Structure formats: structure tokens, C-alpha cells
Amino acid sequence: MKQLRERYDLKPLVIHTNYLINLATTTEVFLKKSIEAFRGEMERALALCADYLVLHPGSFRGADRERGLTQTAAAIAAASRGLDLAGGRLRILIENTAGAEYSLGASFEQVAELIDRLRDHVPIGACVDTCHTHVAGYDIVTEQGFHDTLEKLDATIGLANIPVWHCNDAKAERGSRLDRHQHVGKGNIGLTPFRRLLNHPRLAEAAFIAETPIDQPGDDRRNVATLKRLVSVRSPQVQSLRSRR
Ligand SMILES: [Zn+2]
User: Fold this and answer.
1) Which H or E element spans position 188?
2) By the number of CB atoms within 10 A of the CB, which of 37, 138, 170, 201 ranks highest?
């Protein structure tokens, strides 16, 4: 893995935890299994020398939000007990969610609160998904909305705590809370917000990942190519890539 990463200049390495993990669950047996599964994800991420492990904060059906948050923080702390994440340079990233009923983390404030509660237990940050942000109700489409939403992000989670972004267009309307990813530029977000995001001077160090649908073979490559085309050629990152070639 290390050799291949060097050969293909793959960095950072970001792993997504499996979607069955729900650390906010009120069912005891699911909680036990979720903690075990999440610990397994961390062990494998450490073995692979991954940089980030992305986690959805889960769903608290049957309890209240406060208990969901408290339990999630406690479960992450319990799952990571005895693992040297800092020494392995592995950081857990909490992803903002679409905000379906009972799900945690649809507001930037909730993600920020989880991060605050976990800071003493694990190296922690956030991963922001553009589709989830849009359907959770934040405006990233208009120029003013994009600016305001980024300011809100900075005031809550802090842009410096967001090393990874998921660049997905949205099939659903803003505020619909429906998590349906769409090809970049083909949904309700459109190309312009992605151009603003990819060229934002304060996000020059961030990694951008497409989690778009694969309806036809090659859709993944086409979405990444679309994102690359949006990066301004004047950006210092692209220039340095070019000069390296
Ligand atoms: Zn995502």
C-alpha cells in the first residue's frame, strides 16, 4: 500500500467507515456491534497508514438529540481506547449529514459540538459533504449564500478543521433532507459552487473527493475530470503539479 501510494502520489488516504455503524443507536446490541465495527475500521486504517477515517454521526431514533450526541461521543472514545491514533497520524472526521429524521450532524453546530466533546479522546475534525449541506438547508448555490455558508462553517466547525470535502451534486431540493447524490454539475447545485469551492484560497490544502453515482461505466472518472476542469489554472497547486511533470 505504501509503495503504491508513493507511485501514484496518493495523498491523503481517506477511508469511509461502513454505513451500518450507528454509534447513536438506542438498541444495546447495535451499539455493541457498532463500537466493535468502528474499532475494526480504526485498526485497519492504522494498518494501512491512512490519514483520515470518515464517520457519519448516526441516528438516535427513540431518544433525544442530546442523548444521541453524548452517547456518540462516549462510543467513539470507548471504541478508540488503547489505540494510538495520534502516533499513527490518523484523524477521525465527522461528516455532516443530510438531516433525515433522527439523524445527528445535519447542522454545523452539531458537528462542532461532537468535535468539541471528542477533542480530548481522539484526533478529530470534520468532512463536509456538499450534497448533505444543500439538502440540509444551507445555501451554497447563490454567490452570497455560498459566502455566508462558508462563514457559518468557519464560525462553528472552523475551516482549518475540515481537511476533506465530499463534492457531490444533489438530486433533491435545498432543505429537502433527501440524501440523493448526483453527477457534478447535473443536479440542483450546479457547476459554479464547485468552482468557488475548489478555488477558495482558504481551502487550498483541502482534499476533494467525488462520491457521485456510477450509472454508466466511467462516470467516476468523468466526475473527477469535471471537478479538475473547474480548478483555475492560476491556482498555485495546479501550477506546482504542472511543473513537477
Ligand atoms: Zn459524503
Assistant:
1) none
2) 170
